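Page 47, continued from p. 46.
Same chain as before, 393 aa.
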Amino acid sequence: MERDLKALSAQYKHALLNDVIPFWEKYSVDWQHGGYFTCLDRTGNVYDTDKFIWLQNRQVWMFSTFYNQIEPREDWLRIAANGANFLSTFGRDEEGNWYFALTREGLPLVQPYNIFSDCFAAMAFSKYALASSEDWAKEVALQAYNNVLRRKDDPKGKYTKTYPGTRPMKSLAVPMILANLTLEMDWLLPQETLDRVLEETVQEVMTDFLDQDRGLMFENVAPDGTHLDCFDGRLINPGHGIEAMWFIMEIAKRRNDTKTIHQAVDVVLNILNFAWDKDYGGLYYFMDSEGHPPHQLEWDQKLWWVHLETLVALAMGDRLTHRPECWDWYQKVHDYAWSHFADPEYGEWFGYLNRRGEVLLNLKGGKWKGCFHVPRALYLCWQQFEAMQSEQT
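Result:
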């Protein structure tokens, strides 16, 4: 694939504005009760009306971001408001913790056991406040953010299933999402908080979770950063590791920290070499660092978000470092992703393929897939390619 930045920019922009956004605008908005339907089949029909807080907040964030960064279109702000108003009314318990799932009408279904509900609420209401200029949305965002800071060392609290003290471990998911969340909220946070949290999260990700000898990002480690010889301790989640690295690149770029940018690119390339399926192409979902059988039965599936986050990381890495390996890998992942996940017949992207790259579930949205990874990655890649063009002139 020739490096035609203009054509690439146009491809991602067209797919975002003329395919993916219209799909969610047309099929997902629940104008009757508020919020969004995320369980959409291949053609956009709703097959379940439960509302999952992660995905509700992500869609508020997404349409607020479109309004703030692409074009201040009133229809986009109206869609964001439809979710924000629903969530501010029904999304939290009496203590301010965000539920995991609600009924269509907003009744709580699943307890607030998961810190990521609070993370995505903070992201969503931060960007909605910026778009709408509503002071109450700022308050919701900051309350959710403070919840995350309060809970980050014990993310599940009373809802944890593990027995205390026997094998304590911490997850990469918490510091990586906190890094991204803090960047998203930079306009709302005091400078001291912003600098401190970004420094702490970068340090934790690049010291405790990064295996310095192998250059791989581990999903779980002991509290002191050492490895644990068990299923969870050996777990490599390629998509998480790669997504975390473009978060780190963004933070390092703010600081003009070239060394950390290159270190993050090294990790992306190491994960790709470790996790690429040499027989069928694509990236594995889960792997065991020592080559033992993973306990996740879906370990060899090929998932949409893993490949989309990889495209973002490689486009960003190529722009920031000009290392030829980034572009070589970008071409390979781009060709795989666009030929396997995109659905030119009915729009949007498939989410779940088997190892051979055949569509396993032809849904466009569900309990975990919503209006987030596809549009975010298309937008970010479009922006990277536009920036590369302007930097060449």
